[in-house]
Amino acid sequence: MDISLIGNQIQKFRKARGMTQKELGAAIGVSTQAVSQWENGGAPDVALLPAIADRLGVTVDTLFGREGGQVRDMSDTFIQWLRSLPEQDRLSRITRLLWEASIYGVSDALFTAPKIDYPEDAEADMPSVAESRVLMRTVTGIDSGYILGVGAQDYSFFGVFPEPEEGYEKYFVTDGEYRALFGAMAMPGAMETLRFFCRNKQTLYAAAAVAPRTGVPLPETERAMEALTQAHLLQKERITLPDGLLDTYAIGDFSGIVPLLSFARWILQPHRMNLVGNVIRATCFGKGAASDEKA
Questions:
Q1: Closest CA to 155 of 198, 98, 92, 88
Q2: What digits encode the pLDDT tens for the residues 65-81?
Q3: Which of 69, 103, 172, 202 is surrounded by the fewest CB atoms within 10 Å?
Q4: Contact 204, 211 (CB under 8 A)
């Protein structure tokens, strides 16, 4: 076969992905000059072909110009894989992929990280800190953003935050809006009330029904529920009764409250920051779990 075919294929798919020779070389651990030589009639070492194919998103067959070789559309591949799973397992499998990305794959500096088994428990004992149980926290930050969260078989959550060109702050709300939100949550009885509604998210309750269930005096419950409504954590519905009107409340955006409270705990607990290459990592692992000790 024409030895220059492989180089032509590399150049074709590199350009199709908008990669420079320097970027491709860095991704597979060779010099820019090596990539240039391949594309001008040379050929890479056969041991490099799988890595080159992976970086270009094609099969090794494609690099040899064989029929049937084609560009892999990872979005389609991912969707097909996801649809092959039982519906009730899909979210847990997605979070596991995010956990693996945050541990190993978001930066080349992490490819040599020691293998860590996916934990069974989201919480672990940490006798060295005041809390008896802490979350199995992980965060990886690179120049382009962050992946952070908790990965475990019993409970997991993740946030992926690519940094926009304008920076994160452009998309924050005003200081006053944040103060209103956290001020409402800091009011006496507010957290007890919010926890109650998280447990009873499908039901409307009046303040008089909530107070005895939380142990918070009725006046404090009423003030807290009104403040939580103003902060959009609860929603109010006025019901007409034979003897007048009654204000009732239900959980607001449950899909936002659960992440808010989960990440609040994630932020509050002790953790350790590590630097691996130019990658910031924070870990909080329990007994028996491996962690990256480079600093």
A1: 92
A2: 775 555 566 777 788 77
A3: 202
A4: no
What does the pLDDT look like over 4-49, one tens digit per residue? Answer: 788 888 898 888 878 889 888 888 889 999 999 998 988 888 888 8
Q: What is the DSSP string of 160-224?
A: EEEPPTT-SGGGS--HHHHHHHHHHHHSTTHHHHHHHHHHSTT--B-HHHHHHHHT--HHHHHHH
Torsion angle defined by CA atoms of residues 20, 23, 24 and 27, in that order, rounded to the nearest 10 degrees? -170
The two three-digit tokens of residue 137, written as one number = 């926290």
Which amino acid does the sequence have at 34? A
The tokens for 179 are: 């103060």
Residue type (1 letter), 285: F
Q: Please say whether the beta carbons of 9 and 60 come within 8 A.
A: no
Q: Closest Cα to residue 191, out of 223, 224, 230, 236? A: 224
Angle at 272 between CA 271 and CA 275, to 5 degrees: 145
pTM: 0.66
DSSP 108-154: GGGTTPPP-PPPS-SEEE-TTSS-SEEE-EEEEEETTEEEEEE--SS
Spell out the domains of the chain, with CATH numbers in brackets: 4-72 (1.10.260.40), 88-295 (1.10.10.10)
